[in-house]
Amino acid sequence: MTQDPASPEPGAQLPTRELAEIPAVEVITRSAVMLMSAAAEKLGLSAEDPDESPHRDLDEARRLITALAGLVTASAEYLGPHAGPVRDGLKSLQLAFREASAAPEEPGHGPGEKYTGPVW
What we know:
Elements: H1 24-42, H2 58-75, H3 83-100, H4 113-116
Helix pairs in contact: 1-2, 1-3, 2-3
Region (Disordered): 99-120
Protein name: Recombinase RecA
Pfam families: DUF1844
């Protein structure tokens, strides 16, 4: 049996799309989801007890949340229907950070709040 040269070898990965073919909104949204997921891990949110998570690192979470806030703020107008859910995810992470902090900052001074404004 001969294999079609256009089909991949068994077990081989299909070719990835070229970056030029991916719409900007998809790149931005995927980046936001990656930042959200990483921040959630650094907050320990994937653990049954976040306080006991071996992955908890609030300094790293702060950096990721701030980067996410900058991305969301700068690109909100391009996200269309994705803007609301992405903003909601960001706000949830900001609130989770405040809750996880031993000495929470005043509203307006938490991670990313220089871009989003105070989070309550």
